[in-house]
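hey so i finally got around to running the thing on that chain from the lab meeting. sorry it took forever, my laptop kept dying and i had to restart like 3 times. anyway pasting the input first so we r on the same page abt which one it is
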Amino acid sequence: MATGAQVHLPYTGTWDLDSVSGDVYRIQVAWPMHWMDRSGHSDVPVLYIVDGNALFLTAAEAAWRRSATPRFQGGGLVVAIGYPLQDKVFSPRRNKDLTPPKLSATSRPYGGAGDFLDFIEGTVKPFVAKEVLAGSTLGREALFGHSFGGLFSLYALFNRPSLFDCFIAASPSIWWDDRLILEYEQRFREGKWATQHAGKDRPALMIAFGTWEQDVPRQAGETEEEYQNRWNRAQERGMVDNAKALYGRLHGYDLLSGLAVKEYPGEDHGTVMACALSRFLTTFFEEWPISVGPPLGVSQ
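ok and heres what got predicted. didnt touch it at all, straight out
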């Protein structure tokens, strides 16, 4: 009789890091398959991913598959930031970590994005540079998030635009808390950073969404009432409209070195996650830099 064994994933490492408040986060890292070790490499690009438990394997496999293509440029480091979970891929802690605080700084069970960003900047990034890439040099860095994670990427861009070279927002929950993130966007466009950095030292932003996130099809076995309720909720959240509107507004300002929006026909909120991650990981590792895309409705 055949016997089973626990799977060991090569070219990866896992560490638990503590935040200043004592919260424990699980950091999962994948590096290129052709690396004999993690030292001796120059200008290594790094992609940081929130909701790491749900997205680490997807990102690692997408990065490794690129090594078989003729356009492969050497790959980069995948750093997934998650939680010490068992038997689940999402933690309730993400609701606080990934949502922006009220500008009035009121206390509530959400709105911890500032503290989480502090942890990434003050703990995760130095750990990656000094420990994970010991003996190698750090290159460009990007932040990827989906859903609440996409909202978090936008929050990071609007508040600390110099922290990453690229911010990636897949299906960003712009609708959350009466579109609170748009207040941060306005401050970003009109604030001191915009005046000092217009035309130079600018990050890039890539946005993605699936058409079925708003134009939802009826599911098998779904009653008319169930479908109508789901349709109404999708219209209230306006995933597609909000993403396009954000792209359109930012397109008119000289604040970003690159700006891209990618629409995935026939993909919903759950399925577009892998599409966007694979596409934008490839863009960041192999097709960099990007430029500002055309206005919506204008072909390149």
